Amino acid sequence: MAGINRELLLDCAICPNMCRCECPVDREFGREAVSPSGKARLAHLLLEGHLDWDGDLLEAISSCLGCRGCRLLCPFPELDLCEELLLARTEARPAGMILPAAVPYLNNLKKFGSPYGARPAALASPGSQNPEVLYFINCTSQANHPRSQQIILELLEAAGVSYRVLDQYCCGYPAQIWGDMELARQLAAENSARAAQSGAQLLLTDCPECWHTFTARYPEWGSELSLPVVDTATFFLGLVRQGRLEPGPLGEIGTVAYHDPCIWARVAEICAAPRELMQSIPGLELREAQPAGRETRCCGGGAMFQLTFPEQSAGIARRRLEEMPPAAALVTSCPFCRENLQAGGGKVLDLAELLGLAVLR
User: Is 185 in contact with 223 (CB distance < 8 Å)?
Assistant: First the structure.
C-alpha cells in the first residue's frame, strides 16, 4: 500500500482552505476540526507525535465522505486528502481503536461478509461455464433494495448476455474504513479468487465504491483482479447502442433529475454514459441538478458515513435535495446515494430500475 504523504498533508494543513466551501461535512458539522485543513492538521500532528490518539481525534479524522469535493478548489493537484486521511486512520491508529458506531457493522462484516448482517438468499445464477459477465452484488443494495439487483439480472437476460453472480461478499472497503486491514485483504483475496475461477470476460458492478476498491485498492492489497471492471451505466449503454436492449416510453415518468455520485463523476469520470442512457428512453426529459457532473455535491452517503454518522448524513442529503430541480423522479447510480437521498426525504430510483421500467414492460 502506498505510504502517507506527510508533505502533502502539511501543504493542506497550512492552506487558506477555500476547499471548505465544497466540503459537505464542514457545512453540516460547522466545526473547524472537521474542515478539510482541520483534519489535515490533526492528521499531521498525530503522525509527527505532537498529539495522541483518542476517540475524539479518531471521530474528527473519520468525518470524511471520500467525495473529493475539496479537490475542486485545491491548489495542490497531487493531493487526494480523502485517501491521505483514510491511510492515516488505517495505518497509523492504534490497533483495536474503532469508532463506537462502527463496531456492530464491523462485527457483522466479520461474521456474515456484509456490514448489514445476515445476507439474503443468493440470486439465481445460470450455470454458464464461461459467461460474458460476472455480476458483483453490492452489499448495500442487497440489504436495502434487492429488487434493483434482480432488475439488472433481468436486463442481462433480456439482452441475451450470459452471466454468473459472484458470491455475495463485501468488496472489503468498509473493513478498511473501520481500520481492519486484515479483513479487507481477506475479502479482496476471496473475491479475486472467485472472479478468476468464474471464466467471465468482465466484472460488472453498479456500486462506485466497489468499482474504486476493485480497480485502485485491490492492486495495493495484493489481490489485483484478473478481469476488467465495468460499471452498469456504461455496459447497458453499450447494449442499447447495439440494439440488444430497446427502451420504450415510460408513460407515468416524463421528467427525471439526475444526481451524479461523487466517485463516478470525479474519480471514474463517468458522467456522459448515465445521461446518454436516460436520453435513450423515448420522451424522457432530463433535468440537471445545480451543480452537476464533476462539480456534483455529495449526498452524504459516501464512505459508510450514513452508518456511522446517520444524523449528519441525513442533513447533508437534505441540503443536496434542495439543489435538485423539480421532476417526477430523482435518479442516481449509486446504492449509497439512493439510500441516503431517500433518508433525506427524496423519492429516488436507481438508474438500472429506470432502464428496467423502459425495457422490461
Answer: yes
Domain at 133-238, CATH class:
alpha beta
Whether the CB-CB separation of 70 and 36 falls below 8 Å is answered with: yes
pLDDT of residue 1: 43
HSE (CB half, 13 Å, CA atoms) of 171?
31
Which residue is associated with the grid cell 463516478?
Answer: 264
Q: Do domains 133-238 and 246-359 have the same CATH topology?
A: yes
- Reply yes or no on whether the pLDDT at 122 is more than 80: no
| Cell 442487497 found at | 142
Q: Would you say 162 and 128 are in contact if contact means Cβ atoms under 8 Å apart?
A: yes
Q: What is the pLDDT of residues 270-293, one digit of tens each?
A: 999 999 999 999 999 999 999 999
Question: Distance between CA 217 and CA 221 in Å, rounded?
Answer: 6
The Cα 149–Cα 260 span in angstroms is 19
The cell for 234 is: 456504461
Q: What DSSP assignment string belongs to 95-157?
A: TT---GGGHHHHHHHHHHSSTTSSPPPPPP----SS-SEEEE--HHHHHH-HHHHHHHHHHHH
Domain positions in the chain are 6-97, 133-238, 246-359
What's the grid cell of residue 271? 458522467
- C-alpha–C-alpha distance, residues 238 and 222, integer Å: 31
Q: What is the CATH number of domain 246-359?
A: 3.40.50
Distance CA 236, CA 232 (A): 6
Q: What is the pLDDT of residues 252-261, one digit of tens each?
A: 899 999 999 9
In 3-state terms, what secondary structure has residue 59?
Answer: helix
